[in-house]
Amino acid sequence: MNLNTLKYCLRQGVVSLRRNFWLALITSGMIAVSLAILGGFLLVALNVGQMLHSIAGNVEISVFLRDDADPEQIRSRLTGLNGVREYTFVTKEQGLADFGRALGDSALFVDLAGETNPLPDMFRVRAGDSALVETLAGEIRAFPGVEFVDYGKELVARLLSITRWLNALFLSVSSLLAASAVFLIVTIIRLSVMARQEEIGVMKYLGASNFFIRAPFFLEGMVMGWAGALTAAVALGAAYQRLAFSLQREALIFFLQPVTDPEKLWPVFAGLLILGTVMGGLGSLVSVRRFLRA
Amino acid sequence: MIEMRKVTKNFGVNGEPAVADVSMQIESGEFVFLVGPSGAGKSTLLKLIFCEQQPSSGRLYFLGRDTARFRTGELLKHRRRIGMVFQDFRLLKQKTVFENVAFALEVIGRSAREIRMKVPAALVEVGLAGKASAFPGELSGGEQQRVGIARAIVKDPLLILADEPTGNVDRDNSRQLMGLFEKISLGGTTVIIATHAWDMVDRMRKRVLALEKGRLVRDEQRGGYSDES
What we know:
Chain A is an alpha+beta fold.
């Protein structure tokens, strides 16, 4: 390949995009739609993941102490325990007040205060990871002075199984959507290549190398894929921003907070751009290949 | 330049061969008519020479090289030494006359400078100097075929292969196109024309290769379209 060929291929890619403007526009549009569906689904998956994580992260281990227990000793053991995110000590008096408040009448247990308080002192422990809750509970239960430990065993088990199930579902649906986006992109580009079958045939008769025939299509495919992906990313980004903003303002429940951390969001958008561009280019190569035989 | 030794081309498993047991030689600078009824194997013979298809058996040599042994690079080089002219012109409709002719040089990586020099010269040669910026759709059949010929000769080929070049043009234009091929041949380029235009063949009295059912039935210097003519 010489410089003239390279210059020609670049120029030809641009010229052909201009000449086949509407076909290119429709192709890009369809790529945008298929990638937007995939991207939208990935964003939903990301948010559901965060939601589950935040629910699981808020599961509390209640550690009830015996009357003769030394809270300081237990506190120091909790500090040294791996996987504990935070803990708070709740005295029996505080516990009674909380209980009353939870039942809607803070004066309800006034009579029970002091010596007659039936509640024990307790620690509320939160794990860094919901998968660790069960192990942590087991370890804490063995501490001297611990009467018993409660952590909503069923809820944790259910959350874990839902998380696993949703992860598998999201993985398979995203793979399916990604595969169908790829298939769609390749098909659309194949149509646009077929529309120019005659040109490819003429090129062959004129002695063009396969590289020479492929290069402009490859370039064109990449540009169409990139443009489609960019459109999808911008539209999705704008829609998500609006939705996230209104959710943040209106959703008071902690676990409905949408993902807004750019660190978590950019891989979705970058992934769409890369997928669109690469698929556009590869789709063109695959589509042109069948016309190059002989 | 071209030598065929017992070349056969089969299509399908039990079908009649398109080209059967053809042996012949064509020297550089020759002007050859390939005649015969439709389906006699003329087009297949041209495709074999162009290496678009390979013989099922037998050998085909081009400039002493066995074409079956061409590697990819050699195949490209081979095709670049050949100018093809088609009955249906095969011009790119969205390109101007100039661009169509320039395309032949662009696809083989020639410089813009060379293109600027050679394309107008080729258009002058075929008598279309004034139509450089026209699109094929704006030209008559004869003019379109001239563009096709300009595209074939612009890269200075050793050989021109023309498949029914006058099939879509009127008599006057046919005569002019044949005159053009003759002029090209006088410049030293080998010309092989597959044709049904019996009057042209009879008038020009060039070497005639006649095919029937894939077989070479006549090879005659200064021949006519049929045995009797």
